[in-house]
Hints:
GO molecular function: GTPase activator activity; small GTPase binding
Number of helices: 19
Shape: globular
CATH superfamily of the largest domain: Ypt/Rab-GAP domain of gyp1p, domain 3
Number of domains: 3
Mean pLDDT: 90
Organism: Stentor coeruleus
Pfam families: RabGAP-TBC (PF00566)
CATH topology of the largest domain: Cyclin A, domain 1
Largest sheet: none
Distance between the termini: 5 Å
Structural class: mainly alpha
InterPro entries: Rab-GAP-TBC_dom (IPR000195), Rab-GAP_TBC_sf (IPR035969), Rab_GAP_TBC_domain (IPR050302)
Number of strands: 0
Protein name: Rab-GAP TBC domain-containing protein
CATH architecture of the largest domain: Orthogonal Bundle
Radius of gyration: 20 Å
Low-confidence stretches: 1-9, 288-297
Helix content: 55-70%
Amino acid sequence: MEIQYHKISEKRSKPFTQREWEMILKHNDYNNVSKKRLKDSLICGVPSDLRGEIWTFLTRANQLSVQFSNGVYKKLHERIADDISNQIDRDLHRTFPEHRIFQERDGIGQMILKNILCAYANYDPEVGYCQGMGFIVGCLILQIRNEELSFWAFVQIMHDFNWRLIFKNGTPRLITMMKIMKKEVKKRFPDLHQHFEEQDLQLLACFSQYFITVFLYDTPTNIGIRIFDVFLLEGERVLFDLLYRMLAFKKVEILELKSQDLYMYLRKKLVKECFEEFSLGTLFSTRRQEEREMNEI
Length: 297
């Protein structure tokens, strides 16, 4: 039996209204918000005019910032080693070049982006600066629209979600994630796993960019920020689940591809095709929902 995935929906709780979001942000009490309803509301989409405040709420950036004395952020970004500064400068134009705020060389967008990246390199010298950080920081800048809060939100992501280990020398977290993904693919899709093994395909080469940049690189901005909404609540799990769903939807096509065509499809086309063909609600379906669907095939 062939399943029409795009018609399948799962029952979710009622999303927060604009007024309810405003009350949540006013009270700023994360622990007293229903996580089930919060997740379902993020999946359904949040009010765009409140997204920056919602991200600040989810990351608890305000709470972190008040733990430091005034002027700490300024001191962190004012003094930076020349080699790190030069490395950041080389990458600035690669970050969201389609957004006007980042297009002008040495303009306000690039200046804020550099300030935050320099500040983090000083805040966490063990990690310093790595290419790919700019997409996360740039996205925070676009939505939060406050330089210092964007910095503290980035700090929370790097430390609360331990995302810093993705960028640490040797990328230990990224390697661990790819091992987890390989094991899970073998369990869920043994035929795909066998095909990947036969084609000597390395998952790290195909999917690392989606973890490093949290789907913010080479993904339509309107979709990337929706994924980031849920990421700020669920962390890496949402990234894994998205990729597993995509592999399930495109398994037949994937099994027909070999060698370089297979590699290029997984790296460049899989995610783009899925975003074009399926709603985010479908792609965000739960593991239980996926198992029901797969059992009906």
